[in-house]
Amino acid sequence: MTGLARFCKNAKGVQCSRVYNAPIKQESALKMSEYKRVPIHENGNGSATQMIDLGLHEETLGGPGILEQMYKGQPRIGLECRRISWSIPSTCLARCHWTEDEAPTLLHHINMQAPPCSLTAVMGASGSGKTTLLDILARRRTGEEGQVLWYRQHSSGPDDTAHIVPRFGFVGRHHALYPRQTVRETLATAIDNCVQGQVWTTHQRRLFCVELLRLLSLDECADVRVGSEGMVGCISSGQRRMVAIGLGLVTFPNVLLLDEPTSSLDVHTARSVIQLLHRLSKLGCTIIVTIHQASAQIFELFDHVMLIANGRVLYGGERSKVMAYFHEEIKDTDNKGNPAEQLLDICVSKEATRLANVYEQKTQNVITFGIAEHTVEWTVDTQTTCMRQFATLFRRAIINQARDTRGFLVRLVMYIMLCMVIGSVYHGLDADDDVASMHDRAIMHVFTLSCLIALTVAFIPTLHRDRGVFEQEFSNGHYHPLVHAVVYSITPVPYLVLLATVCTLTMMIFVQVSVDGSGTVLYGTTLFLSFYCAESMLTVTSLLSSDVVNSLFIGAGVLTIQSLICGFYRVPSHMPGWAGLLRGVIMHRYAVDIVLYDDLHTRVYRLPDCPGSGQHVANASCLVPGQVLLSTMEMGVIQTDMWNVVILLLAVGWRAIYFVYILLLHRRWCGLKRSAMN
Questions:
Q1: With 50 as the cut, is the pLDDT of residue 313 above it?
Q2: Cβ-count burial 126-163 (b if 16+ within 10 Å, e if not)
Q3: pTM of this structure
Q4: CATH class entry, domain 24-375
């Protein structure tokens, strides 16, 4: 448990709302007409980099809570989109068995406005385009045409718009969390990593963690593990949804987007989630949620409603006027019952197309968007130092590894059992000194390396989980992506060193892996570097598919191909050209060369039917040096240390590919790679 988490655990009784007593200037309520758009300040390359001054200092804090105080000091940001359209990409048409003419348009000229400090619900039936619209607003997907704009509330004070960089937060439907961390540790880690980590004092960050737990109604389960579906002794799915919302709040976003925050929740829990969002909107955060089913009590909490059917808008405006609007358009509309259910019935009715046409005609000359605007750029800049981020993420990774005792023991036992089985099969091989035993030793080494390296595919589910958590946290600006890449290049090292050590010792007990045991360290080093290179390669191959099972097949297939063309099962001169090219960049080739050369090149064996034992034979011509077998595999004299350096360089190369992926993702989220939304 981190120092921050320990403090929060001991500070349950602290009244955060009474820590600071400095007076706060109350803001007057502003009408919608008092909002205006302002341009955003950009640097030379067009990217927004200057962050909002948090103004969080001990002498100026006050009021009922840190969260309220932070939002009082931030500008009120609204969001709107103009004529957003999106259809199925041409690359996906074949999989869906559609032609270009048959491809549906999921979004058709969507106009939407979410006023500052409001809770806006995007409603519609399943498949109506709600999630697609939210992905475009969050810049997770590029629209074919249209614009996504932000604007701020008009202020009578000095014009500070040049220093405004709106923050955007996103909470997806499927939130990725570390199951073995407690709720308190999850939030505390995010707080330590985010922008306030440098501006705030340690005491203020601890108090904010306590306040956030209370705001999310998680203070009673703060020290319970987050868990996942099917795990026992962890928080519920509704509480995990609250944790995901809390992670989206630690950067104090001006606009928070949530995809189906109430899905799979009971009525009471769903109402608690929407009540929390309603309260946050009144603090100063503009919130947009997608929802397809809501109770009457939940529906009353929304300020604005947008109704979508078949990718077209049926209504967009105040929630209090929606039923009156449809009562005018559909005369037999029943105003009794749950209005949310009635609206969904309208979305799936035969009148939906007509209502969409009517709404477009009514609003095409009525909706005004102002004269100044700026396209939304998703910012993930942070003021926390990279060293702080590295320390926090490294500590979290080590704690998660230490708590996964069951998974660790299962893998460790599996490695030991495999080595014991191989060792027992080849036990006593050192007592034999004929040529057949020389071939057996070569087979043993290659088979052992191939099997032990193949078991590294067990890391793929963990890699998928880590990448899911990373993309979620990075999209909300928790840390710099390269810090994540460096941390997760270092954290596997202790675990892999232990596996390599245990496997080497187990093999030494049953079968001597080198002459006089002098190459034991070299054997263990080669095994560790092979494990690390395989894990680095699987980190990259796991990016090829979002499905864990498919990633397992891909990883196992790549490792099998590398083992096949390592040069033992088929001499390199007899391989096809493509295999010869690949052989130069695979770790199996170098690992096999190191182990075989170190063990066999100094050994001497006797031919069959020759008297004597080992080198003590009557005829010296009966002696066969191990270099003969190596020459049959076209293996000359090698520098084993240099070959280990090559394996390490291959691992670095795979890590570099992953770094490039991280950098491309960083460019995508920061908006440096401009989209065609003009």
A1: yes
A2: eebbbbbbbbbbbbbeebeebbbbbbbbebeeeeebee
A3: 0.75
A4: alpha beta
